[in-house]
Amino acid sequence: MIETLLYDTEAELLRRGGPELIDAWRDEPHTILWANFFDEPPQAEGALFEKHFGLHPLAIQDAQRDRHPPKIERFDGHVFLLVRGLTGEPPSLDSGIVQIALFVGSRFLVSRHSRPSPSIRQVQENVVTDPSLLGHGPANIAGTVSRRIADRYWKILMDVEARLEVLEEEIFDDADDRHLEELIGYRTSLEKYRREFS
Predict the structure, then answer these.
(1) What angle is formed at CA 104 by the lines to CA 50 and CA 33, rounded to 5 degrees?
(2) DSSP 8-state assignment for residue 156
């Protein structure tokens, strides 16, 4: 699926659509485009990436891999960010990981992910509500998506910290096997997240 948001900086209007808005963006130099690619066939999206946005083929390959370490790379005409978000809503230790690729140009943001991304969805909804957000530029939207991802991780850690404090008191009052089972579950999950943070 390809979702597009096209913001006209002169008329201050937002259009919402699909791949047809990519052609409109190319023809209208006073527009900014956010094209979000979700679960598209890799060959089809790769061809669109190169043809319309001039994205580097190696960056496209990295974006399409299921697992790749997070990275930031600068290319002629765009910056490539690869980040890991959370799939769960609301975020919890049971949330899965989704790799999100962000290609940031002067007039475009291309995002790509193969699993649902609540962070992308939330920022898209914010842009639809307040189109001027896209008018601040693609880098602003990419930064907002990145902050939203970090906030979701932060919420999980704060929730776990609060639960561990309560669990500590429960163990001192009356420890049993379910406490140990819960602690082992947290340890396993936190090890997974430590690998992701690294």
Answers:
(1) 80
(2) H
Q: Choose one of 151, 171, 187: the last residue of a domain.
A: 151
85 touches 149 (CB < 8 A):
yes
Give the span between the Cα atoms of 133 and 163, in whole angstroms.
36
Indicate whether 188 and 130 sit together in one domain. Answer: no
Let me know whether 34 and 112 are in one domain. yes
- Angle (CA) 39 44 49, round 5°: 95
pLDDT in tens, the chain (198 residues): 899 999 999 999 999 999 999 999 999 999 999 999 998 777 878 888 888 999 988 899 899 888 888 899 999 999 999 998 878 776 667 777 889 999 999 999 999 998 889 999 999 999 999 999 999 999 999 999 999 988 887 777 777 788 788 888 888 888 788 887 887 877 877 787 677 666
Backbone region of residue 92 per phi and psi (left: phi > 0; alpha: psi in -120 to 50; beta: other values): beta
Q: Distance between CA atoms of 84 and 97, rounded to whole angstroms?
A: 6
The answer to whether the beta carbons of residues 89 and 12 sit under 8 Å apart is no
